[in-house]
Amino acid sequence: MTAPSITTRILRLIVELSPVSQSDLKARSGLSMSTVSQATNRLLDRGIIQELGLRRVSMGRPKTLLGLNPDYANVVGIQLNAERNLIVMTDLAGNLVGEQQMPSGELTPRQLGDALAKFLKTTGDRHVGAIGLALSGLVDAQSGYCVRSTVLNWDNEPVVEQLQARFHLPVFIENDANAMALAAQVFGQLGQSRTAIVATYGKGIGAGIILDRQLYPGRHGTAGEIGNAFLTDGSGRTLEDAASSKAILRALAETGATHLAALDERPSPQTLEVLREAGEHLGSALANLAVAFDPDVVYLAMEPQMASRILLDQVTQSFHTYRLKLTPQLTPLQFLTESNRMWALGAAGLAVDRLIDVLSTDAEAERNDN
């Protein structure tokens, strides 16, 4: 293990286990106490982490507890998808500092940069550590390119390079499902879970896959693109064709509903059947992911107005029917439906996740310079 990776490992363990003592970090990391102390002292000296108080023990001295300092920096999260285009700023714990709505639909990288510049002027002199960009489409996180987004009409767009050149800040990009998965990890929704599926639902359907606390993107960054998977009923339809909010509202256009929650009010037999079929397909797709990856938990995230009780009941029933039953420990399905800014906060979580590595590297470089 190289020296820079030690600081990164310790900081990630602090984020994961907070509040945590140095002795707990030693036990979890397998490193010596002196190595752990040196890394935590570097992070404390820079203000990246902070002391959170003492934990009393039955014998010996109380243990000082450590955690990430949420006020060390702010991050910007940008949501670009079929639901809405939104910019938010949060602290390192995901607490909202500010937000700005953008026009929905297509916009150019230049228009995005203009909107971001306008937003940053409203936030005063707050220190911004990184920008996270979560969008609907195929992205190359390593190169910083949006390979293809039909919502934005972008093809092979070097959006990260363009934003970094304009704002002189680290910029990171992911598809919206992967960003949500990373955010659930760094902001604490995953708790102590090591493996999780975080599926996102709306006009598109996708899933971020966390394996042993690491995002699994797949060979070409398309792991979890379950919305593009074909159904097994011989119809030639994809999961999004049958179960997305767009597909449901199109099938029930005569109701005049603009969001799925409205369908729960005096549903007709046709409405019940459309929601039943969509929930059946979506629940079985999530169950198949659970069978393939054996996660600690599966989350399904959607904006509140898309949370049809009828649909979610059917998803739950289908998931429970098809999930693996080889062991007594059945994978739970949980819903995240509380926020209208969930994907923007996911982008902020992406920024925090990547910023952890930047801060660790800087702390290690400072030590080597001294």
Automatic annotation (TrEMBL):
Organism of origin is: Mangrovibacter phragmitis
Recorded hits in SUPFAM superfamilies, A to Z, give: Actin-like ATPase domain (SSF53067), Winged helix' DNA-binding domain (SSF46785)
Q: Which GO terms describe its molecular function?
A: DNA-binding transcription factor activity
PANTHER family for this protein: GLUCOKINASE, ROK (REPRESSOR, ORF, KINASE) FAMILY
The HTH marR-type domain is annotated at 9-50
- Database matches in InterPro entries: ATPase_NBD (IPR043129), HTH_MarR-typ (IPR000835), ROK (IPR000600), WH-like_DNA-bd_sf (IPR036388), WH_DNA-bd_sf (IPR036390)
What is the name attached to this protein's record? ROK family protein
Q: Which residues form the signal peptide?
A: none
The record ties this protein, via Pfam families, to:
MarR (PF01047), ROK (PF00480)
